[in-house]
Design goal:
Elements lengths: L2 H26 L16 E7 L6 H9 L8 E8 L5 H5 L8 E6 L5 H10 L5 E4 L4 E3 L3 H11 L3 E10 L5 H22 L11 E4 L1 H6 L9 H11 L3 E12 L5 H21 L10 H43 L19 H23 L6 H28 L8
Parallel strand pairs: 1-2, 1-4, 2-3, 6-8
Antiparallel strand pairs: 4-7, 5-8, 6-7
Helix pairs in contact: 1-6, 1-10, 1-11, 6-11, 6-12, 9-12, 10-12
Length: 411
């Protein structure tokens, strides 16, 4: 076995280990079902809606917040227009006069973190929530978040279960399967206290968090990830409310998807560098010992696997072309007859089948957690398209990280 193939085996074994680990975590502590219980106490809540050029979706986002099943006198909504150049501020004017809604417009400072900090400074809730201006919450989502905070006074932040809002195209359905897998692994990471991202759609913090660790930072345009890292560094607990459901719009073009994932991937690399002291450090629990090292290993494995596949594809094409030139025999692409005897039964094939099977199980479980059926087209598009596009954003994120190239608001 050559070194290149050995590297692929290592990558596949890492993937298999990760998925088996998550499945065992699920079997040991299955997510509880939603109940009709209500919180014993309703704290005051301020939900920040930072927005830049979100005129098309802002109104629907705010309407979903106003429909939350929560005492109106305890809930305030803070819209922060970060110097938009479209009709975002005009869309926000629809809510002028609503006592629950405050509207602010500020000069654009190039990143969402500044808008979030502005909202924190202009809010007063005991709990601070964030909601991207292209996301929409279930009516009982806030109640479920409050119940999670109430379950343990040590919990300082709570993340929701995020699913794709009304996926239509194959690209959106691919992301629907991906988000379903994300619901599963975020809950499993919750089981081991290793949540590493507090996503923009409907994550909540106790106000005291910002007094203890400070406000949001630019953080390579991934302030939600850096804040999670910083909270772990200060020993503050983060939990997941899998019964708090939020739907979010996703990129519907390949270019938009790749730009979003470049930001996410680059943010992961740069925040890992900034918090490198947490890696393999038992002081930071399972985040330092497992989640971060494995996340970085998975990133590198994805890059390696893509390069391996590209190299061998080009090698195969070159071999066929060389044989045609030297022998004069034209290439033929006739479909060979199927024979079971020639089915590839190598260990590599079994590993790939096992990983794909466990991925299907994880996506299925994630869908069931949020009572959403994932259609076959989502599974198919996930396995076909994700592996095709992921190397593009991984490679570009790595290149941009090496060049330390910064950009403005990315959505």
């Amino acid at each position: 076995m050559d070194l290149g193939t050995l590297g692929i085996y290592v990558c596949l074994f890492l993937s298999l280990y990760f998925e088996v680990f998550l499945l065992i975590s699920f079997l040991e502590k299955k997510p509880h079902k939603k109940t009709l219980e209500r919180p014993l106490h309703y704290p005051t809540v301020s939900i920040l809606v930072p927005c830049w050029n979100k005129g098309k979706t802002l109104a629907a986002t705010v309407h979903s917040l106003l429909a939350l099943e929560y005492p109106r006198e305890k809930l305030s909504i803070v819209i922060i227009d970060d110097g938009s150049t479209d009709n975002t501020l005009m869309a926000a004017q629809e809510f002028l006069g609503n006592p629950q809604v405050s509207i602010y417009s500020k000069r654009n400072e190039g990143s969402k973190y500044a808008a979030l900090n502005y909202g924190i400074e202009h809010s007063s809730g005991e709990l601070i929530g964030c909601l991207d201006a292209d996301s929409f919450v279930a009516p009982d989502a806030l109640i479920e978040v409050i119940k999670k905070f109430e379950s343990n006074s040590a919990i300082m932040a709570v993340t929701p279960a995020m699913k794709v809002n009304n996926p239509r195209s194959l690209l959106e359905r691919m992301q629907a399967a991906e988000y379903s897998f994300g619901i599963f692994y975020r809950k499993m990471f919750d089981n081991i206290s290793a949540i590493s991202v507090l996503p923009g759609p409907f994550s909540f913090y106790r106000r005291e968090v910002f007094a203890k660790v400070g406000l949001f930072r630019q953080a390579h345009h991934t302030e939600d990830m850096e804040m999670a890292f910083r909270m772990h560094a200060h020993g503050l607990a983060i939990s997941n409310a899998h019964t708090a459901i939020v739907s979010t719009n996703v990129p519907n073009t390949v270019g938009g998807l790749i730009r979003q994932r470049i930001r996410w991937s680059r943010g992961f690399l740069e925040n890992c560098r900034d918090y490198s002291y947490m890696f393999l450090n038992p002081k930071f629990g399972n985040l330092g010992l497992f989640a971060l090292p494995f996340g970085l290993a998975a990133y590198l494995a994805g890059m390696y696997s893509a390069l391996f596949a590209i190299f061998h594809s080009l090698k195969t094409i070159a071999t066929y072309a060389y044989n045609m030139v030297t022998t004069g025999v034209p290439l033929t692409f006739a479909m060979p007859e199927f024979e079971w005897f020639f089915v590839n039964t190598s260990m590599l094939s079994f590993l790939i089948i096992a990983i794909m099977g466990l991925t299907v199980v994880a996506i299925l479980i994630g869908g069931r957690i949020v009572n959403t059926r994932i259609p076959f087209s989502s599974y198919l598009s996930y396995f076909v398209l994700f592996g095709l596009f992921a190397p593009l954003w991984l490679a570009r994120a790595t290149w941009d990280t090496l060049r330390t190239k910064e950009t403005g608001w990315l959505v």
